Amino acid sequence: MDQLGETYGAGRRARALAKVRPWAFAAFAALALLFQLYLPLFFESASGVDLPLLVLLYLAVLRRRPIFGTLLGAAIGLLQDALSQHPLGLFGIAKTVIGYAAASLSWRLDTDGAAVRFVLAGLVYLVHQGCYWGMRVLLLGHALAVDPARTLLLAAVNAAIGIPLFLLFDRLRSEDE
Fold it and tell me: What is the domain partition of the chain in residue ranges?
């Protein structure tokens, strides 16, 4: 391995895993699920915002452990399925894939910058939607109803919402890292 790769890799691995206060961890997920459930009742345009996905992305990238990301994605996705009108398991499977991928990817990328977080949140939204639509078509036999322009717009909106949300989450990190 070249000197630049060794220096970069050693710095990333040497960094201690960031910690989130346990109460904040539970509160992030619970509030995101409640907002996901009730916000579209008052603002119909908010139905495309996936706050549980943004919380999953933040926590999976923060911990950088694929098993943690996988289990967290499954838990958040299944809770989202249980609270929604969608078939049980679709969000669970999609968010499990995202949790694993985000935690794995965080070993390769420096995810502390706003630009990287914006791009990552937008791409994660697109991959999540692709997984969700693919399962609806392949597993349930539903017709594929995709509006590419709306999906790209919602990816940008979710990414834009993610930036201040991630900054808020950064402030709630534990000081004993």
Answer: 19-171
